[in-house]
Specification:
This protein has 619 residues and is an alpha+beta fold. α2 packs across α3 and α25 packs antiparallel against α26 (602-618). It is globular. The two termini are 31 Å apart.
């Protein structure tokens, strides 16, 4: 696990000096406190920071092939590196036991086609000194991040946005469309970043720099290819695939544990570890005065069943006040879903004991776990209702008393009523909308922008399925998962020099999901049906029957109490530094409504507070 970066002057051929890479590399010290490697070869430079996970004594990067014509830096883990090494050993001389050296020899033999053989989470760059070519690639699911900027014949790239900003002369012009996308969904998805000239490399994509040109292309995308299988066969295959995935991802030369929630996915990982004879340390985040938001009792059921070394990690408003400004500086762009702070908190607490943590991310996207899919089914019925009936339902929803309970009836019905008027794909995203178009026009008067839903619609032509729920799953897998969930998880764990692994996003699990018939993923209105069936004998009944809760925090109540002044201070500081950025009075209006209990504006407020902290730091 590392952070990587580099620069190539592909147009001018001007040499890259090591000194140019030092400051950007320093900004990623947290990603790799154990080692540093820098290579400057003619017009190309590569650099990395290393967190030692495998082959602690060897594995220094960049790694070279035998004649040193190829140099490679890797961020991530190649889980099938041992099998690949056995294939390569008859033809290559190995000097380390690292997965990085396996990758450089695999690229030497196969070039770009090496990507077809890799099972892992990665972003890597390889410099071919003989051909004068640079090749960069990112993993299929988008677990490991990669930003780049192609400016005036020079390509820059880095694992983190903050490192790219540290290159001399990197422009900081704001991408106005990215700002609107952020306000709509409280994160920014590929290909944009908050900065106009810096882009995200999408998952399953690569960049090739050769001669005086750069090419970005997609080398893999998810395909629905349902196969015939009975429910029993599907459950058996899922259990076997998850067991194999967990076994692969237990390979580590440093201590390892699990981030355990009350959900099916992380509990399934603990169950598979137990089947493999491993009793892990487990960590669950809880909240001071958390009420319905706390998952501590349910997580303890799993911990007790499998005898794990279990730890509760309590988060409170004081932690938010301390950690959010630091996280905003580290992200270098706004991210409004504060649940990443809970992930960061459990990471910081667990880092005292473990360097690697397994998480349950990806299960909902692959096997239909989100309640918005249920809403989509109901929405198809809703579309056929007479207009007066729809109007009556919306009016009744508007009259519901405001509740700040976790996934309250108030929240679910109002979200449904707001989204169900649109076509299903748009409705699916409307359920997750933060600031409405009306909110954004009031906050940014006169601002010109495109419909933010176009960001998501661009993915739909690639869906090889006319099934509505498959199309919605594809959106979640290609937008929400990599750019809201995985990106924030990578950053907050790496802030603590900790590696987060995701067994549900192993190649074998993804391939099984592609083959799994939709009717087995979601049966009637039961989400993640096949996962429940496959794991029934491993998990407590309370966990199997528990409805999807989502990963949420009691921010609504905290913003009325201990975080009220913190939020207002962020607004006032932003207004003082950048008075013309937006109409701050609209944000004050949202805060007033929330404090008076007229509306639960907590999601809008966390989005805006993060934005205000960011603009005070970076504008």
């Amino acid at each position: 696990m590392c952070g990587i970066l580099g620069k190539i002057n592909y147009s001018s051929g001007a040499p890259v000096r090591e000194a140019e890479l030092k400051r950007p590399l320093f900004e990623m010290l947290h990603r790799g406190p154990d080692d540093e490697g820098v290579l400057a070869d003619r017009n190309c430079g590569l650099a990395m920071r290393r967190l030692k996970i495998i082959d602690l004594e060897g594995g220094h990067q960049p790694v070279f092939n035998e004649d040193r014509t190829l140099a490679l830096v890797l961020n991530g883990e190649i889980y099938n590196y041992r099998e690949l090494r056995r294939e390569l050993e008859p033809r290559h001389r190995f000097t380390t036991n690292s997965d990085t050296e396996v990758l450089v020899h695999l690229y030497e033999e196969l070039g770009e086609k090496c990507l077809e053989k890799l099972n892992g989470m990665f972003a890597f760059a390889v410099w071919d000194a003989k051909k004068q070519e640079l090749f960069i690639a990112r993993d299929r699911a988008g677990v490991k991040p990669l930003f780049y900027a192609d400016l005036g014949g020079t390509l820059y790239f880095a694992s983190e946005l903050k490192s790219l900003l540290a290159f001399n002369g990197m422009p900081r012009d704001i991408d106005s469309q990215a700002l609107v996308d952020y306000l709509s969904f409280y994160y920014i998805s590929s290909p944009r970043s908050i900065f106009k000239h810096i882009r995200r490399l999408p998952q399953g994509h690569c960049i090739k720099v050769t001669g005086k040109k750069t090419e970005v292309r997609q080398y893999w995308h998810y395909r629905f290819r349902p196969a015939k299988m009975t429910e029993d066969e599907a459950a058996e295959r899922l259990e076997a695939a998850l067991l194999s995935s967990v076994k692969r991802q237990l390979v580590s030369d440093v201590p390892l544990g699990v981030f355990l929630s009350s959900g099916l996915d992380s509990t399934a990982i603990v169950a598979m570890m137990a089947k493999l004879g491993v009793t892990p340390k487990t960590y669950t985040v809880g909240y001071e005065g958390g009420g319905t938001y706390n998952e501590l009792p349910e997580a303890r059921l799993v911990a007790q069943k499998y005898g794990t070394d279990h730890h509760d990690c309590l988060l409170g408003p004081a932690d938010i006040r301390e950690q959010l400004p630091k996280a905003v500086r580290g992200f270098a762009e706004p991210h409004g879903d504060w649940t990443y702070l809970a992930m960061g908190h459990v990471s910081a607490q667990s880092r005292r004991d473990i360097t690697v943590a397994l998480t349950g991310a990806g299960g909902d996207e692959l096997f239909a776990g989100y309640p918005t899919l249920t809403a989509a089914k109901v929405g198809r019925i809703y579309q056929y209702l007479p207009g007066p009936v729809k109007a009556a339902i919306k009016a009744a929803a508007d009259r519901l008393p405001v509740s700040t309970r976790r996934l309250s009836l108030d929240f679910k019905i109002k979200s449904f009523a707001r989204g169900a008027a649109f076509k299903p794909e748009v409705a699916h995203m409307k359920y997750k909308e933060i600031l409405t178009p009306e909110d954004i026009r009031a906050l940014l008067p006169g601002h010109k922008h495109a419909d933010p839903f176009e960001v998501f619609a661009q993915h739909l032509p690639a869906v090889a399925s006319d099934r509505l729920l498959n199309r919605l799953l594809y959106l979640d897998l290609n937008v929400f998962l990599p750019y809201c969930s995985l990106h924030s998880t990578d950053l907050v764990t790496m802030f603590n020099s900790q590696e987060a692994r995701v067994p549900f996003l192993d190649n074998e699990m993804i391939a099984l999901s592609e083959e799994m018939p939709l009717e087995l993923k979601m049966k009637g209105f039961t989400t993640k049906h096949i996962v429940r069936k496959a794991l029934r004998r491993y998990l407590p009944e309370e966990i199997l029957k528990m409805p999807k809760k989502g990963f949420n925090m009691p921010t609504a109540e905290w913003l009325k109490g201990d975080l009220k002044d913190f939020a207002l201070d962020a607004l006032h500081a932003a207004r003082k530094k950048n008075p013309d950025f937006c109409d701050y009075s609209y944000a004050e209006k949202l805060m007033k409504e929330h404090l008076e209990g007229r509306r639960d504006n907590s999601r809008k407020l966390t989005c805006l507070v993060s934005l205000f902290l960011w603009q005070a730091e970076y504008l």
